[in-house]
Amino acid sequence: MRLVEFIFATFLILCFSKSYAISFKGETTEKLSSASDSVYVALIWHYDEGKSFSVDPAIGIVKDGRFEIEISGTPPSNGIVKLYDCEFSVAYIVLFKDRNGNKKLDFKNDTLFGVAEKNCLTFLKGDLNAALDKIAIGKGKYKNNNLRKIAQGITLTKVIKLETEEKFEFDDLVTIDRSENILIKVGSKEDLDFPNWT
After folding, report:
1. Which of 41, 83, 99, 135 would disulfide-bridge 60, Cβ 3.0–4.6 Å?
2. CA–CA distance, 181 with 198 (Å, rounded to integer)
3. Quick count: other Cβ atoms within 10 Å of Cβ 4?
């Protein structure tokens, strides 16, 4: 491969990778720290029609109730749902107690005790509008929700509880700026209001 072709190919790879890179910050409702409390922020992507979850390798360190997390690539392959020609997924932003000290979320060993009740991450690649149109045939659903305006790639989103007559099984989602502060509510799993994407 000639040098010019190599540089161009490298440029394309870097551009593609950056489109799926995102970082954001937030805080927890209690002043916790990873160092003293063994707590971390994780992302869990839904798949298998919401019956299971795939843990993202990205982990957020918590210090004095503040955290930052950075994602450098697409969700795990088993965390992506294929809707016709579109790839889509939603991730919960959760807080967990790292009981075995490996700094990653293990559902069998660790304890979830916090979630961003009003925010999610979304991953989109392809034409979600066309997919929703096909799903909605004869059902009169998914016509007016903001989900149709979700940006491509990985984006930070705000959860909107629908109060319209249009029936939609899940919460609506709106893309927001990644500079917005994300609040994770701390509490027992039973007391937390997880966004409705399961």
Report:
1. 41
2. 24
3. 8
